[in-house]
Design brief:
- The longest helix has 20 residues.
- This protein has one domain.
- Helix 8 runs parallel beside helix 10.
- The protein is built from twelve helices and eight strands.
- By secondary structure, it is of the alpha+beta class.
- The strands form three sheets. Strands 1-2-6-3 form a four-stranded antiparallel beta sheet, sandwiched between helices.
- Helices cover 29% and strands 12% of the residues.
- The relative contact order is 0.14.
Length: 355
């Protein structure tokens, strides 16, 4: 017999997820049509949500400004791949007990692309449905959404990724718990290198008497920084575009404009090209996750404790110059000081009468 307890036992003991919760489908009745699980699986009765932790050490190289692949592989796209496999295996367990299972993709940004197909006929649901997996995790009692819109648990603070499965099995739901984790300290606001998180502007929903609130993120600034186009937080971009001045806090772009600009530039920056089989998390979530993590660990409210470094970092976040330091070139060539290859062999000095 499939029960909430049997699902949780299998997920934790066999699949080794870090936490799992269940919501009844009625909690999603007010979701907008293009984000409603009813439009993915009309017969759904329950929503199963689990999380896998992001290893704390994934952020060390970004905190030092020296190493980016660990977060990409073990805290972002690589971890999302593991979650997809876990969704599949958990879905098989549900099917083996005689019920359907619909895994929901981990991507949280499909809505920002906008409709990519013809409009549906009147009275029909939207053609592209994507659930808000962070709201789903909150409604399943796994944790809560913080001010930065990053999902938080009492075990790991902001360090996890989320998996979601819809099923037609009627399961005992977990209680919703909010207001226990995020204390609105706004460390995320202060430490976001893209200035993408407002400190006093928010959006919210209410479900079963619980107000779920997060800041009204500037998604364009967030995506420019996330994709490594922010000179202050990306040595890769500075190295290959030393003369570009694009202060992120002054940009007024949509998420999709930032996405398209990033993908247009990735092939020109070797680091990004190497990582860009998936969206590139160059910012390292330095405000929304690292800043939040520092605050919560200092308070001692995260259950995942560490013996050596009990607080992630006491250092002020590093930052590079936003304005290019060289200004006296004529636009024909790079300043030779910045025209070097990885092995240093192509250093050159142009003749004095070059232009």
């Amino acid at each position: 017999m499939l029960t909430s307890e049997s699902i949780k036992k299998f997920a934790k003991d066999v699949l080794k997820v870090d936490k799992v919760g269940i919501a009844n489908i009625e909690r999603f009745k007010d979701a907008p049509p293009d984000m409603s699980p009813y439009n993915i699986m009309p017969e759904a009765k329950s929503v199963i949500v689990f999380v896998q932790r992001i290893l704390r050490g994934c952020y060390r190289g970004i905190e030092e400004g020296t190493h980016w692949p660990s977060y990409q592989a073990f805290g972002y796209s690589g971890l999302n791949g593991l979650i997809a496999k876990t969704c599949y295996r958990l879905g098989r367990f549900v099917e083996d007990n005689g019920y359907e299972a619909v895994p929901v993709p981990t991507s949280a940004a499909l809505r920002e692309f906008g409709p990519r197909g013809p409009s549906p006929k009147p009275g029909m649901p939207p053609r592209e449905i994507t659930m808000n997996i962070r709201i789903a995790a909150t409604l399943a009692g796994v944790g809560e959404i913080g001010w930065s819109k990053v999902f938080m648990t009492e075990e790991f603070g902001p360090r996890q990724r989320i998996g979601v499965i819809l099923t037609d099995a009627k399961l005992e739901p977990d209680p919703i718990v909010t207001g226990n984790l995020c204390d609105h300290c706004k460390a995320c606001v202060r430490e976001c290198p893209g200035c993408a998180l407002p400190k006093d502007k928010s959006v919210s929903i209410e479900v079963e008497g619980h107000k779920i609130e997060w800041c009204d993120i500037d998604l364009g600034k967030c995506k420019l920084t996330h994709f490594g186009l922010n000179r202050k937080s990306s040595p890769h971009f500075v190295k290959h575009f030393p003369g570009v001045y694009m202060p992120i806090e002054e940009q007024e772009v949509t998420w999709l404009e930032a996405w398209n600009l990033g993908w247009g530039l990735f092939s020109q920056v070797p680091t990004y090209k190497a990582l860009s089989d998936h969206p590139v998390p160059i910012c390292g979530a330095r405000g929304c996750i690292i800043g939040c993590m520092k605050h919560l660990e200092k308070k001692g409210t995260v259950k995942n404790k560490f013996k050596a470094a009990k607080v992630f970092s006491e250092k002020k976040p590093w930052e590079l110059l936003e304005r290019p330091p060289h200004v006296e070139h004529h636009g024909f060539v790079y300043d030779p000081k910045y025209r070097t290859s990885e092995d240093g062999k192509n250093k050159f000095a142009p003749p004095q009468d070059w232009y």
